[in-house]
Structure formats: C-alpha cells, structure tokens
Amino acid sequence: MIRLAYGRMLQDGLDGEHGLPRAGLASLGARFAEVQAEVRRRRGAGEYGFYRLVDQTVTVREIKTFAEGLGQAHDHVLVLGIGGSALGTKALLNALRRPAWNELDDEGREFFPRLTVLENVDPTTVNAALGRIDPRRVLVNVISKSGGTAETMAQYLVVRAWLEEALGAAAYRHLVFTTDAERGALREIAAREGVATLSVPSEVGGRFSVLSPVGLLPAALVGIDIEALLAGARRAIDRAEADDLLKNPAALYAALHWAADTELGARVHVLMPYTDRLREFAEWYRQLWAESLGKQVDREGRTVNVGPTPVGAVGATDQHSQVQLFMEGPFDKAITFVAVDDLGEDTPIPERADLPPDLAYLPGHTLGGLLRAEYQATSAALAQRGRMSCTLHLPDLGAATLGEAIMFFQIATGYAGVWYGIDPFDQPGVELGKRLTYAAMGRPGFEVGEARTGDGDVI
C-alpha cells in the first residue's frame, strides 16, 4: 500500500517560516466535506468515468485472450498514438519490464515481443522505426479515441502503406484499433475491412485512459499482469472513499498542492521519483496534471487562468541539474518525491585495495543504499531551506503498486479540479490547436485564414 508523507509541506516540518501552517489542515479538512460531496455527485453523473476502469472483467478476458493468441504470433508491437494514447503505455513498459527491453534477446524478454511507441510525426523517428522493424512480424496498435487525431491518423496512413508494400492484402491482419465503440474514422475502417478492435469507454478521456484497453492491451502483449494493475487501482479507490481528509491520501495530496499554489504561490509542482524505472511515469504525470488543471475559465464561466506547472525530474540524476534551482531559486515549487522501498535488486559497491581515502566511505554499501541516502539527504536539505516537499512511499514496483500509483494521481487530479473550481476533464486549449492545425493542412470546414502560421518578428 502506498503511503503519503506530507509533514514537509508544513511550516513545522520546514524552517518554521515557509510552508503551509499546520492549523490550515483543519480548514482544509472542514471544506473537504463539500469537495467530497461534489466529487460523488459528479461521479454519479458520469464525469469521473476512470473510477469504473477497475470493473472490466469482460474486457480483461478479451485482452488476455487476444494477447495469448494472435498477439503472440508477432515479435514486435508498434503503438501509434499521442498524448494519453502513448504516455501511459511508455510508463508501464518502463516501470514493469526490464530496462532496455527492446535490446534484449528473445530469452531475455521471456519470448514476449518488443514494444515501440510512435508518439510524434517527426519523419526521422518514424522512418527509423520502420527501418528496423520487420513488417511481417509486427502487430500495429493504432490508438485514437476519436478516430481522427491528425498525428495518429497520419502515422497510420504511412504505416498502412508500409505494411501493404510488404504484405499486400494481408496487411489488415497486422492491425488492431483501439477507438470509440461506435464512431470515428477508425471504427468505420475496422467495420469495412474486418480489422480487430478494442473500445475506449466513452466516459474516459485520453489522459485518464492508461488503465483502459489503451494501456492494457500493449501491457498484456509484453507480459504485464493487467489484473494486478487493476487490483492495485481498486485499492486507491477504496482509500479515496474516506471522508476524513487525513485518511484520504489522494484527496490530501490535491488539497495541499492546491493550497500551496493558491496561498503561497507554489505554482510549480515537481514529481521526482528515485528510480529510472519511473522516469516515464513522471512524463505521464506531467500531461495528467497540466492538461487537467490548466484552464482559462472556471465552471461558472469566469476567467481565472489557473493551473500549476508540472515538472518531471529523476533522482539522483537531477540532483546534479535541477535541484540547485529547487534549493535556492524562487519559493514557487512543491516537490513530490517517489521512494521505492524494495527496488527488487541491488548491487554491492566493491572494496578495492588501491582506493583513495576520499572514496573509502563507499565500499560496504550498495547502489540502492546510496540512492536511498540521496533521496533522504535531498529531502532534508530542501526542508532546511524552507522548500516544501512530500513523499510517496511505494513498497515495491510490481504491477499492483503501479496500478495504485496511477489511480492515486488520477483521483488526486479529480479532487484538485474541485479545489480549483474548474473542469479537469476538458481541454479547450488543445482543441484550439487542433482546429488551427486542420486549417493549416486544408481540412474542409476549417478556414486557412484562422491559422496565423508565420513566426512574427524574426532576426
């Protein structure tokens, strides 16, 4: 079970001057009854659809059957998607499969396929991927809930031509679409050509979809236990039923970060896991927090321009880059460390007879012990400087724990939307960019004049 250590968000856990006053917990707790009621009301109305992802018995059975059957007939899985259709899958692979997964031989991967995620339309990246993948041995998972995402559909057209050049009419057998259950271009193509499909629940937005078929299918194909992922997610939901703020970790996390932002101007929220295996998880968090909470208007239509800026970091790597700013820069940051109690393996630091005295302290310890000491020292040093932080303690990095962590942050995001008074499930700023892209590319119904594509002043 995940534990949230939050004392270093408070003044008495810092330098006595900076941070939130402990007395503020009482006022946050008093207001939480109203926040919890609104979340439950909106859940009942269908807004918080990601809560229902823990109840996918039929879908999980279908995914496992597909993964164990047709899925294992391929030695490479190529995912086409962007944003929420890609970041979650990358986080799952990074956290739950061996490092450098695609570089391992078949035995090293336990005969599960390699996995490549194409999340951009940079032709250099796309061409390099298609140049190293055998089209006769690949399964292409095209992910777009709308079925019309410009970047993903452009990727699809390029990859479909690549498949057809090698496979001819059999190309469709190497495709599986994850899209809306009823509408969109992908659904139309699938119905016409007999392409295998999985459905994205209509009430689940892209950045909340990693525990839907969007993330579960690629995860199952590479041997990740998707039932354990969902069991861990259910644990986070169960804990979020608590009406006492101090017994509800996700709600407390949201409340403290909202207060740090709105009361103390800590508008930069850093997620800093102390393991390389959560590097992509920090990237997934950035989209979730930014796209959900950065809004121009509140639910009443008033212009508010709110939203924290999420930043990803990795310990101990970023102690040698970003931590200098965290330590001595503006008091505008709240840092969340992620510490893993059991990394699953460790490496002793060996003795050497010729070791200089300045390095004699290292032998007798392990790399994991050094990593833990680095986290503890960084957290303590920030506290001495009056810099707010909290820590998520993960017992391990198994599928159930990661599922709990994913749902923890999704629930916290939903609570934060209520604290900020905004809709955490829309993305009007993203939609504007899409419309201007369509206009610039000449899509019918969109005026080219809408898109001012020049750079402005240039020197």
Task: Walk me through the structure.
There is one protein chain. This protein is α/β, with parallel strands linked by helices. It has two domains: 237 residues, 3-Layer(aba) Sandwich (Rossmann fold), CATH 3.40.50.10490; 175 residues, Rossmann fold. The protein contains 14 helices and twelve strands. The strands form three sheets. It has a five-stranded mixed beta sheet with strand order 1-12-11-7-10, with helices on both faces. Strands 3-2-4-5-6 form a five-stranded parallel beta sheet, with helices on both faces. The termini are far apart. The mean pLDDT is 94.
Q: Strand order within the widest sheet? A: 1-12-11-7-10
The rounded distance between the terminal residues' Cα atoms is: 56 Å
Strand content: 5-15%
Helix/strand/pairing category: alpha/beta
In CATH terms, the superfamily of the largest domain is Glucose-6-phosphate isomerase like protein, domain 1
Number of helices: 14
Uncertain segments: none
**Could you state the order of secondary-structure elements as H and E?**
EHHEHEHEHEHEHHHEHEEEHEHEHH
The CATH topology assignment of the largest domain is Rossmann fold
Calculate the mean pLDDT score and round it: 94
CATH architectural designation of the largest domain: 3-Layer(aba) Sandwich
Number of self-contained structural domains: 2
Q: How much helicity do the residues have?
A: 40-55%
Shape: globular
